[in-house]
């Protein structure tokens, strides 16, 4: 069937899926595996890439001494396909709710009774030469993921807000005494400066432009030519949600208007639309996103039985 939506002609499948899952990260894949094992009609749409792919050494996932994010995604996709989940490559651009959900991806429109959004977040990373060479091995973005990997190493933390001061103090308590904090802003109140002095954390106001070192990180070069020695870097610039396609739904968000509010089953303020992973207010970890995906899937199983 052909239809016209917002000026573009879309091809619509008549089939109504029991559930469409948007995003093949840990949250979406775990939900897909559960729903596939209930013998439901499930479509998983993913545009490729994704944040978990940057996690090169995951050590905090039960039973996995070490596994890469890429392996988790590849194995998860294989598991989901084995339970007859249909996987399509595509970028979802819009979700509408009428009698059922309409999901638009490219020139296609799909219909579903339930939707699980697990499209993840996108890290704000500073523009520094060689960053991607070391991302996930010695350039990190998350204390829960990689704080441990900085243990007893020469650490530089870079950030653009005073939250980085709290991060530096926490990192010192748990992981390493040798910390330099590089802040992009010079608006640092005296009490913060004093606390850093007390904690013996060096403070530099400036902008790193290049990571030095061929195989391993040896230091950072700043805009003014200054060089700061280090072996590991933690960057703290926050992230944005991959949520553009939800903008027409007027979903409830937290007080800051940032993260989506969900109930105990990860259902959003819109009946039938679930949001798992770091888009909601929970912690941003693989095992947590996966757990949330399982909870959402079990709830959808119950609701499908009631239809
Ligand atoms: C460097 C690094 C190291 C990390 N290390 C760890 C660790 O050691 N342990 C740990 O537990 N966690 C770690 N994490 C965090 C972990 O990656 C996140 O918790 C996880 O990504 C959250 O999973 P998610 O389900 O939200 O999916 P994501 O991995 O964010 O995947 C979302 C998927 O949705 C897709 N998508 C987005 N928008 C659309 C759209 N419009 N249409 C279709 N598809 C879309 C994306 O392409 C992607 O494939 C790390 C993260 C980074 C960046």
* Tally of structural domains: 2
Rounded mean pLDDT score: 95
Report the major sheet: 8 strands, mixed
Q: Report the top-level CATH class of the largest domain.
A: Alpha Beta
CATH topology of the largest domain: FAD/NAD(P)-binding domain
Percent of sequence in beta strands: 25-35%
Low-confidence stretches: none
Question: How many E strands?
Answer: 18
Q: What would you give as the CATH superfamily of the largest domain?
A: FAD/NAD(P)-binding domain
The helix fraction, in percent, is 10-25%
Rg for CA atoms: 22 Å
Q: Examine the secondary-structure arrangement and name the CATH architecture of the largest domain.
A: 3-Layer(bba) Sandwich
- Which outline best applies? elongated
Cofactors and ligands: flavin-adenine dinucleotide
Q: Secondary-structure element order, as H and E?
A: EEHEHEEEEEHEHEHEHEEEEEEEH
Task: Report on this structure.
It is a single chain. This protein is an alpha/beta fold and 307 residues long. It has two domains: 2-122 and 239-306, FAD/NAD(P)-binding domain; 125-236, FAD/NAD(P)-binding domain. It has helices spanning 26-36, 69-82, 131-134, 143-146, 163-174, 190-198, 286-306, and strands at 2-5, 8-22, 42-46, 86-89, 92-97, 101-105, 108-117, 121-123, 139-140, 155-159, 179-183, 202-205, 208-212, 219-222, 227-229, 232-236, 239-241, 273-275. Strands 1, 2, 3, 4, 5, 6, 7 and 18 form an eight-stranded mixed sheet that branches. A five-stranded parallel sheet has the order 9-16-10-11-12. It has a three-stranded antiparallel sheet with strand order 13-14-15, with no helix packed on it. Helix 1 (26-36) runs parallel beside helix 2 (69-82) and helix 1 packs parallel to helix 7 (286-306). It is elongated. The protein starts with a strand and ends with a helix. The mean pLDDT is 95. The structure holds flavin-adenine dinucleotide. Flavin-adenine dinucleotide (FAD) binds at residues 22-28, 45-52, 54-55, 58, 60, 69, 91-92, 118-120, 123, 135-136, 141-142, 145-146, 242, 245, 277-278, 284-287, 289.
């Amino acid at each position: 069937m052909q239809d016209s939506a917002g000026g573009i002609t879309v091809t619509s499948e008549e089939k109504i899926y029991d559930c469409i899952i948007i995003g093949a990260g840990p949250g979406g894949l775990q939900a897909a595996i559960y729903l596939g094992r209930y013998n439901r009609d499930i479509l998983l749409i993913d545009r490729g890439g994704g944040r978990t792919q940057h996690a090169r050494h995951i050590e905090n996932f039960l039973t996995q001494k070490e596994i890469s994010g890429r392996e988790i995604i590849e194995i998860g996709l294989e598991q989901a396909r084995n339970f007859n989940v249909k996987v399509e490559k595509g970028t979802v651009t819009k979700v509408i709710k009428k009698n059922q959900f309409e999901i638009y991806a490219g020139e296609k429109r799909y219909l579903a009774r339930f939707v699980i959004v697990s499209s993840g977040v996108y890290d704000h990373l500073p523009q520094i030469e060689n960053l991607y060479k070391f991302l996930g091995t010695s350039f990190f973005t998350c204390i829960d993921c990689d704080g441990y990997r900085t243990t007893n190493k020469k650490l530089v933390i870079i950030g653009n807000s005073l939250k980085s001061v709290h991060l530096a103090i926490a990192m010192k308590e748990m992981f390493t005494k040798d910390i330099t904090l590089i802040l992009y802003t010079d608006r640092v109140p005296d009490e913060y400066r004093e606390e850093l002095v007390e904690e013996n954390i060096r403070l530099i106001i400036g902008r790193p432009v290049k990571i030095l070192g061929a195989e391993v990180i040896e230091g950072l070069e700043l805009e003014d030519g200054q060089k700061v020695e280090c072996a590991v870097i933690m960057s703290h610039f926050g992230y944005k949600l991959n949520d553009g396609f939800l903008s027409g739904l007027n979903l409830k968000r937290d007080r800051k208007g940032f993260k989506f509010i969900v109930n105990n089953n990860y259902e959003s303020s819109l009946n039938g639309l679930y949001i798992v992973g770091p888009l909601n207010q929970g912690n941003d970890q693989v095992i947590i996103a996966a757990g949330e995906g399982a909870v959402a899937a079990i709830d959808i199983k119950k609701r499908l039985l009631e239809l």
